[in-house]
Amino acid sequence: MHLTHKPGELSARPLKFLETDTLVVRWIAQAAVNVELFTIPLYMTSLYSITGMHPITSQGNSFYKGRQWPGAKTSAIFEHKPGKKGWGNKKAFNIVFSVFIQEMLHLQMAANLATAIGAVPSFTATALQSGDHGWTCYGPKLTRIPGVVDLTDTNRFKDVKVNVGPLDEERIKLFLAIEQPQETAEKDIVRNQERYFPKVPFKYTTVAELDAHIMFGSIGYMYQCYRDYLLITYEDGSRLWDHVMDASGQQNDLFNNFSFPGHPMREFMGFETTIALTDPEIALKQALNMMNAITDQGEGATLGARYDEKGQRLKDDAAKLVQGAVSPHYCPDRDALASDYPSYSQTGKLIPSSDAAARADNDGIDHYTRFREIEDIRGSGGLETWDHSPRIGKWTAADLTTEGYDPKDNPYGLATPEQIAHALNSLKNGADSAASFQKMSQAVCGAIKGVTTVLDSYWNPAGATVSFPFPSMAGSGDRMSTAWAVFGRTPDLSVGVGEPDSNIVNHACQGLDLAEVGGKWGTNACAQTSIYHTCRGSNLCKGQGGCGFVQLTSGGGSCGGASSGCGAASSKTSNAPKANPVAGGGCGTPTTVKGGGCSAVTMRTYGGLCGTPTPSPTPTPSGPMYTAPSDNICGGFGGCAVPISALQLYPKSGTMEVWALVGSSKPVLCGAPKAQADKNLCGTPSPSPSPTPSGCGAPSSKKIATIDFKEGDKVEDIAFQAFAKVVAYKVNGDPDKPVPGLVQQAPNDLRLAYPPST
N or C terminus of the chain with fewer C-beta within 10 Å? Predict the structure, then answer.
């Protein structure tokens, strides 16, 4: 088996190489981020290609009793016996889901490793994506796993293409190629062998040369090179780690963080998923252990199983390189998962956690072995994917209901199963089918963009603080599964969504434009694709939409988070990250965000409200107040989803503040044309009562009204009320003086097709 270096190569190295070694190890750090990020849309696309239905449930309510939507979900209890078509779907979904979640863990750890050595990781790098957030690393003719291997150089996978698609034979082979252990990869690479498994230190000294020539051969080998670089010892006795460790490196955590009550237990009791950068020796130990966790969970062998602490090959390696079992230290705790990710019945009662079952039942074996199990299920005829489903274009109301559905029991005026089935079929069979397919593909890309663009800021210590858009991942999955169920074909992740026009105010769930068109207001029924996203935090600049869901006015976009107000200076005690300004050069003013972001249980409990709302019918002034996402007084308050399901309901009662965005007195804002000065919304003003424009001549925000909402109100209805008040204020100077002819548009097929979780 290839070793990463020759004996003695990593000791007494001349200090003249320090600068080059620093460049290389930070390049490896980004390469690790790239390959972990590369797997996420790929695995997610195949995961949601599996046929299945799911209800929408949350703690304490039964809004959607008797209803279900297309898209498989994790299962706590199921039969895994050969039988009718798709008998292995639930097992297969659980397996791929468990890998998918661990890839997010690996991405987090790769990012934390990068910042620990002074690198700022990029999640929108051109190695994987185009400038408009289309994914260019996948394609029907592509054969390269970024930084790892060109599959045409292999024996087993020489005909496999690196492309998204259903969970079919080719995709499973691709997944095995990604996750295969180093020993297997070495045997399988039969062409151009000199391109792979480079020796440390590399002979290349520029990023361009590294990009052009370094291919690791396996992910495990990449992390071994990473480790070896950090342990290079120089002629003065120092290590590269001693020179590159950054004590101020941004460390973020979604898995072992404590956030009561939303995430009350750390998921991994046996190792740290962040690096404590106070003590260099402890930090190095944690960094190497994180690499071990990644390789053990992925290919089934830790770096420590191959080499001793001095980097020398162990003699008993054969006994320690058995694939399959993952060390218990790197497995999640079942009780912690059940506590952090609860499941609820259709009446809002607590039931066994399906996510806990999916992960705890499968995380004890490595990814490579898990995909071998998927290969067996498919080979036994146990998989059904949407591209082979007879329901495509032929959905019926009966498909969308479960036992206990009562058509007369509809107190919230939800769209009927018949209406939803009609919308699903119209998108597929209508005259605009091609355009609908592209729009739904863009909705998926926009949801993923909402994650990657925020992650660029999340791990960047400069700029405004943001929260991790955790619910975006769920929203991305629902959009992906709906696209599969409507068209029966792979969503096109290459289309991208473009960048939003910061001179346009796109309001509420319909994306309504606060501009008069042909003598009328609010005539557009859905948002422009350039502002498609899920979860607040994705629209860091004003006017990038939002669904009408409200956010606490006292926080910077974090569930239950608090700050001294929009624009407040960052606090050193905050564990939340900071972000670079976005769009227009001035969007997003630094704010303090505490609590580490939204947790799954909090989002399920409050449905996006992020905090307990003030009770109706008489909200007390001392209770929390909320602001509409599109009219958010601060960029970090974000929004929920654009476009949004027409079936979204408020899970609690409360009061929403309505803000009018007022143009600055300056003639030119952020380089915008003078004529557009009153519409440009770059920058984030301070909250009232005395807003102070900040950033590039930012506009002021003025609170003009409040709206009470109650449990079960449609989000789109309350959003339109807010929109109507803003229009009235703009036209008449009085939010309570209605504008004639302003009529709420009916939801289109796209918004009817989406489940109320997106």
Answer: N
